[in-house]
């Protein structure tokens, strides 16, 4: 049986879950300016999480045309994580041994825990051994745009994702801007399949894996019927490479065009789909698990 995270009908909503204001030492713009960036022409984000370093930035109850989630980026430098849609913040930012307690607290408040930029500074910034011991995180940033532009390490962390998935961790992959300066706004996002444009519906989609990460590719359809997976691009004028990836990161099938399908053999354990274009844009579905 295929566990399909994209079963519900609804609307695709665009959002970023890692955003800094000038409340962070490394941020540059006011909260209002940041929100205006993501609401601007052609950006048109539907949701945004404000995740300043080691503090909970105060938000209004409602914002016009966009849903804003309160959040925090935990820890001073090492082993950083995001807490999304949380109600309070308390932590010793230099204590790197209390992640499980943080995850439990965020979860109790109805929030999401996301592992930040696993390959920033060095490939072993977030060791797989440490992540295998922790529970309660929804997923990890498989792409972090700020890491790419700062040349601080590797922006892409799908290798670690496959390692976790192959070890039985059912975690999702997020693509986030990690926005500090204007030029990096809008370069990575998550498309969530939601019943309606509301904070409750968005959080439900993110918690259940009903979203895909992207740096510029949009999908029109993600289907899993019987034992067949099927994807279709929204824009048919730009073809892409589709890779169906399984256990231990093995490429099960690769094809080129505007759509792609894969027939499951029943032995794959999980299959995720990675899409790439020659201009460098990419997108990643969540894993389809086999049970």
Automatic annotation (TrEMBL):
Transmembrane regions: none
Domain of life according to the entry: Bacteria
Protein name (Swiss-Prot/TrEMBL): Polymerase/histidinol phosphatase N-terminal domain-containing protein
Signal peptide: none
PANTHER family associated with the record: EXONUCLEASE, POLYMERASE_HISTIDINOL PHOSPHATASE N-TERMINAL DOMAIN-CONTAINING PROTEIN
């Amino acid at each position: 049986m295929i566990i399909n995270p994209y079963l519900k009908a609804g609307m695709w909503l665009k959002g970023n879950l890692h955003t800094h204001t000038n409340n962070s030492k490394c941020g540059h713009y006011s909260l209002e300016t940041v929100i205006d960036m993501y609401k601007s022409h052609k950006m048109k984000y539907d949701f945004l999480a404000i995740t300043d370093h080691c503090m909970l930035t105060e938000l209004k109850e409602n914002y016009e045309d966009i849903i804003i989630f309160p959040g925090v980026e935990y820890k001073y430098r090492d082993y950083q994580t995001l807490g999304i849609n949380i109600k309070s913040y308390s932590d010793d930012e230099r204590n790197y041994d209390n992640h499980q307690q943080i995850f439990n607290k965020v979860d109790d408040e109805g929030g999401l825990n996301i592992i930040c930029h696993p390959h920033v500074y060095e490939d072993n910034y977030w060791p797989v051994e440490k992540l295998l011991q922790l529970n309660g995180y929804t997923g990890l940033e498989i792409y972090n745009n700020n890491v790419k532009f700062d040349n601080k390490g590797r922006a892409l962390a799908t290798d670690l994702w496959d390692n976790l998935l192959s070890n039985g961790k059912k975690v999702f992959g997020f693509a986030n801007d990690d926005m500090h300066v204007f030029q990096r706004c809008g370069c990575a996002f998550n498309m969530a399949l939601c019943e309606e444009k509301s904070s409750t519906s968005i959080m439900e989609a993110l918690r259940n894996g009903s979203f895909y990460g992207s740096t510029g590719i949009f999908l029109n359809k993600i289907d899993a019927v019987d034992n067949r997976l099927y994807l279709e691009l929204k824009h048919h004028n730009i073809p892409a490479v589709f890779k169906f990836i399984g256990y231990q990161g093995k490429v099960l099938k690769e094809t080129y065009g505007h759509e792609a399908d894969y027939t499951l053999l029943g032995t794959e354990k999980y299959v995720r789909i990675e899409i790439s274009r020659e201009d460098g844009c990419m997108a990643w579905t969540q894993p389809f698990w086999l049970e």
